[in-house]
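name: query_chain
kind: protein
chains: 1
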Amino acid sequence: MDGHKPVTAGGPPGERDPVPARDPLASTELTFLLGISFQLVLAEFTRRLDAAGHGDVRPVHGMIFQVLSGDGATSSELAERLGVTKQASGQLITDLEKRGYVRREDHPRGGRRRLIVLTGKALAHLEAAGAILHQLESEIAVRAGGGTLPALRTELARLIRAMTGDGDIPPLRPLW
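structure:
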């Protein structure tokens, strides 16, 4: 069954009309649809990461790894990119450093600044997370129907550009 109860069409009680009841998601506000979609995908992604041995890493940590991939960043740069306070950034970095995911290095420009870079442990996480995410997206594409996901990606990109005035893409803030 698809979970929808057929609507009766004014006939005798118990007689069913083959037209399914109106989809309650069709009139749901866009912000809720986006939020629910995000929650569902993120929960499944996190579950699969846990099953792959990366259960100690939360979504915010993955966001940090994305910012730091490549040449790394300072704590202040990380805070700006994530849209969090410098204090929050520092606490996250300290936690990840204790767990072996990042290390602090002298900044190439000298001074008191420290560069935060990923360790091999974080790079292994990024590799696993990338593979899991691509597999999950492939499965979603099959379940949603062939051309649905590329069309959705295009429309979401248009929405973001319309909301930002074709400017810089804002940070995805770790609100969860």
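note: The chain is about 55% helix and 5% strand.
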